[in-house]
Amino acid sequence: MQNTVRITNLAMLLTFAVVIHFVEYLIPLPIPVPGAKLGLANIITLLTLLLYGFRDGMVVAVGKSLLGSFFTGTFLGFGFWLSISAAAVSCAAMASIIPFMRRGHITAISVSMVGAVFHNLTQLIMASLIMQSYVLFQGYFPLLVLVALPTGILTGAAAIYLEGIIRKNLKILGA
């Protein structure tokens, strides 16, 4: 029974992540930084890491990129490779520093900011490898970091808020 509840919860988290990913794909950001997004679906990845751990967080992160690319029509395209690699690397980066959060040294906002920076760094590395040009790093990485930090703060704060609600409701349900 417990495993069924976990799988159902993970399926819902993955569904939320895919829907957010799709909606975010449809809405262009009004900032002049190509490829920059708010990364709202990463709220769900971070939430999954906090609630269920690395393995399930990675399933949601990679699943979001896979399924999201099917719905946006970008499967196996340039954006797909950027998305899936960045999702996996940023999830691993966040998971690697969550133990510091558990010890009270940092917060989920810090974890999210690290994830956002690693996400952008990985996308730049992948784009450079695919295009066989490293010109993207000249001035573009610092600009992406400037975008990543506030979005990391936003997604981290949202994950903290949602984690509190979920944990409270799980206690009410007796889970």
**Net shape:** globular
Count of beta strands = 0
| Structural class assignment | mainly alpha
> Helix and strand string, N-terminal first?
HHHHHH
Percent of residues in β-strands: under 5%
- Helix proportion range: over 70%
CATH topology name: Arp2/3 complex 21 kDa subunit ARPC3
Summed up, the helix count is: 6
Radius of gyration: 16 Å
Average pLDDT: 88
Under CATH at level 1, the class stands as Mainly Alpha
User: What is the CATH-assigned architecture?
Assistant: Orthogonal Bundle
In whole angstroms, how far apart are the ends?
11 Å
Describe the protein in words.
This protein is mostly helical and 175 residues long. The protein has helices at residues 2-26, 42-52, 54-72, 78-102, 108-131, 137-173. The protein has one domain (2-26, 37-173): Arp2/3 complex 21 kDa subunit ARPC3, CATH 1.10.1760.20. α2 crosses α6 (137-173) and α4 (78-102) runs antiparallel to α5 (108-131). The longest helix is centred in the C-terminal third of the chain and has 37 residues, at 137-173. The radius of gyration is 16 Å and the shape is globular. The termini are close together.
